[in-house]
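The instructor's notes for this session suggest beginning with a concrete chain rather than abstract definitions. Hand out the sequence below and ask the class to guess, before any prediction is shown, which regions might be ordered.
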Amino acid sequence: MKTMNKTLLATAIALASTQTMAAGFQLNSQSATGIGRAFAGDAVIADNASVLARNPAAMALFDAPAFSGGLTYADVSIDIKDVSFFGGVSDLGGIDDAGSGKVIPNIFYIHPLNDKVAVGFGAFSNFGTGTDSSSLIKADTALAPYDLIGNTEVTTVNFNASVSYRINEHLSLGAGLDMIYGEGSLDRYMGATPLVDVEADGIGFGGIVGATYEINENHRFGLSYRFSPDMGVEGDINTMTPTMVGTTPTFVATNFDELEVPLADIFQFAGFHQLTNKFALHYTAQWTQWSNFHQITAKDGTGVVLGFPDADPIAVGDVALKEYKWKDSWFLSLGGTYNLNDKWTLRAGYAYDQGVVDEISSISIPDSDRQWFTGGIGYNLTPKSTIDFGIAYVMGEEVDLVEQSAVVGPVNATTESGAIYYSLQFSHQF
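After discussion, reveal the predicted structure:
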């Protein structure tokens, strides 16, 4: 029996795993106020409890319990054009609706225990996506890069518990524990044969530390570092790999117990400056360690040859599936807040979001540098209750790429990705 085609297996499973990384979209969606100002200053402004998602030390800025909760709808747009292979001889055309929308809830609560210590709890999401490129393959398509095209749905939730401690009137420190739950499904078909069929979920644990420094009540700085885990994703992780037994074509059906997915650490620095009674300027520099996402590992695999019931199972073991060569990236934002009167607050912001894909591009992970144009408005229902709305238009660049398919060889395509975020939030200080 010939050695099974591990390249096809690696490509298919790796695609399943990388979609857990939100297909190039890091979901900056933790609050409507943050979206309205392009997340500028979000690690230190502390105008509501959602600051917990960015910097636990900023809880020290609260002198009363605070609640915040909201919903964000991310309308993700992914265009895939001019998909061709065999030197352009075969052309699959393109689609303009490969992305799908996501509703992303968030909830936060901060409780000062005394004038030194505060605790907080939050649930939010950092990653999530839904993509479907399966319509590129028509019913009469004779040959296609089946290993690169299909449907994916992924959802993640970050549960956080944090504590802060005020050292003195200027310096506060904080730390928190993250429990990240993720679930997803993926399929890749070659005709009626499922090359990949995945239903999986998993839990990982990470943490965050932070600090704030207050020059005075009008000027302060914040920084934080989030330690992300290597997620172990378990479930039904099945693949079909073409092989030959003598002169008979068949498939090796392989099952893996677990996929190990390394997540990226995140560092950010933020500043806030109340320049006048009505206007404040704020900014953020966020660094994400995407270079940590170097490969996906499938663990404890076992394969069987279809059509040969007497054949011994194949022990696949652990397989380093694919190298990505992603690079670390920066998210830089500048925003402003204007207090129109006692009832209304206006926000606006701009951000430059650096893409993570470096030497290796992918049809299923369309990525590029992006620009964020954002705005928001807040209304004070009462002196202690506020409702906020934020909107962000995310504009990506058009990218020409070449990706290797184990079925047809080099595949050329042009991709463009972007999104519109709509967010609504209610906040209350007790």
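Then share the key points. Residues 1-25 have pLDDT under 50 and may be disordered. The chain has two helices and 21 strands.
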